[in-house]
Specification:
mainly alpha
Length: 185
């Protein structure tokens, strides 16, 4: 059963990665770049400072810092270092079948830190903002970031799926803790 799932994961990766072109190579590289996230982070932070008191805004920003810490630390130390699943771009059995633009730093890919951080940020922000249009846009953004990792051949679809689930879990946990502790003050 596990072998069947891993083969399906590999087949889906190769299928997605094989449908490349120069436009999407650039677009997906752009979406994977952490520097593209900064304007979004700043815009969301400004929103909180405009809509809330300074104290509340600082608590909310602290909640985001905690989500990033949990998502990032967990994706590396609870998953990558434990499962040690090679990224597809470092897997000698399939690397020749991939269209690669740039090699990532770490050799292990389960789970995707990009997906965990992206979905952690997206879900926590939509839990605070509670706007239908914003929810659609932020989830589309997080999904595009996660998909870009598969398109670029640096993660299997399962890596980003479980990374997204990890980020979502982190966001709900932190939001629950925020409601439990901060709202009581």
């Amino acid at each position: 059963m596990l072998e069947t799932l891993l083969n399906l994961d590999t087949d889906l990766l190769i299928f997605i990665n094989s449908h490349h072109n120069s436009f999407f190579d650039g677009f997906m590289s752009f979406m994977s770049s952490i520097s593209v996230w900064i304007p979004l982070y700043v815009a969301v932070a400004v929103y909180f400072f405009v809509k809330n008191s300074l104290k509340t805004s600082l608590y909310i920003l602290l909640a985001f810092a905690v989500v990033f810490a949990i998502s990032d630390f967990g994706s590396v130390h609870l998953f990558k270092e434990v499962f040690k699943r090679l990224r597809p771009c470092y897997n000698p059995e399939i690397v020749d079948q991939l269209h690669l633009l740039k090699m990532p730093g770490g050799h292990y890919g389960f789970i995707s830190s990009h997906a965990a951080n992206g979905f952690g940020f997206a879900v926590l922000s939509l839990l605070f903002i509670k706007d239908k249009i914003f929810t659609i846009i932020i989830l589309l953004w997080a999904s595009t970031v996660a998909f870009s990792r598969v398109y670029l051949g640096v993660h299997y679809p399962g890596d980003v799926l479980f990374g997204a689930l990890w980020g979502i879990l982190d966001a709900f946990l932190v939001y629950y803790l925020y409601k439990l502790f901060v709202r009581k003050k």
